[in-house]
Amino acid sequence: MTYCLGIITRFGLVMAADSRTNAGVDYISTYQKLFDFSYPGERAILMCTSGNLSMTQAVLTLIRKDLKAQEEANIHSLPNLYEIARYIGSKIRQIQEQDRAWLQKDNIDFKCSILLGGQIRGEEPELYLIYSQGNFIQATQETPFLQIGETKYGKPILDRTLNFDTPLEACAKCALLSIDSTMKSNISVGPPISMVMYETDALAIRHKLQLRLGDPYLAKVRKWWEESLRNAFDHMPDIEWQYYQESSQEDVVID
User: Fold this and answer.
1) pLDDT for 252 beyond 80
2) Facing residues of 46 across strands?
3) What is the pLDDT of residues 181-203, one digit of tens each?
4) Residue 207 vs residue 111, higher pLDDT
């Protein structure tokens, strides 16, 4: 399992991912899940991957091969993020068609999903979620974030905090708290945490970080958030219970 998310606002993008993969409780590994395919000055392209690791690695390999061979259709030649999302979807279907029969034979889950975010010169920043079937959806002003992987634990803070006017630095903190909340509740999500912040029209990635297990800032954020939640809980108003008196026997009518 994994957890990745992308956030888009009028100010740009934040994309973040954990790095843990597991094939059972006794086989846990670390793999990169956030990838930068930018062409500085022309286009910023970021991807986060989730699902079957062999599938996502194969898709990324095909994307890199097309770039190296300068194929007519590649992520540096396609005119907009929508066409790039369609292109990535076609690569997912290609790998699945090649391997589906053998994976199904051994009951192996071959589903995967990819977050695609970025900006091409002359276009607005965009964020897409590409499904295992190759189709996709786009983030909107009303729903400015998308998630893949183990999404449920990190969603509440996104729902309560984010909107399309949220500053990027606040989005980055929200993304970090969302991942940390997921790590707290699910052992299959874990560090290192990779995160990128992209400013609209920069057309280059200027802000990136990786937080490893035991990182002082990550520990500080977790402690501060837990203390703040506990303090907020302690100061919640008490429930105003409604009390009902038991009916008097004198009020009981007997036919």
Assistant:
1) no
2) 36, 117
3) 898 888 778 888 999 999 999 99
4) 207
Q: Indicate the pairing of strand 145-149 with strand 193-199.
A: unpaired
What is the separation of C-alpha 47 from the centre of its chain, rounded to a whole number of angstroms?
A: 10
Task: Report which DSSP code applies to 83.
Answer: H
Give the mean pLDDT of 105-123. 90
Bond before 191 cis per omega within 30 degrees: no
At residue 123, what is the residue type? Answer: E
Encoded tokens for 3: 């957890």
Q: What pLDDT does 227 receive?
A: 93
- pTM score over 0.70: yes
3-state secondary structure of 213: coil
pLDDT tier at 26, thresholds 50, 70, 90? low
The CB-side HSE value for 100 (13 A sphere, CA atoms) comes to: 10
Quick one: which of 149, 106, 116, 112 has its CA closest to 133? 112
- Alpha-carbon distance of 127 to 139, in angstroms, equals 6
- The predicted-structure confidence for 66-95, as pLDDT tens digits, reads as follows 999 999 999 999 999 999 999 999 999 999
Shortest CA distance to 117 belongs to which of 204, 55, 32, 198? 198
E strand or H helix that includes residue 178: helix 168-185
Is residue 139 within 8 Å of residue 125, measured between CB atoms? no
Q: Burial, 150: exposed, middle or buried (Cβ in 10 Å; 0-12, 13-18, 19+)?
A: buried
3-class SS of residue 134: coil
CA distances, 69 to each of 57, 76, 88, 93 (Å): 18, 12, 17, 21
Rg (CA), the chain: 23
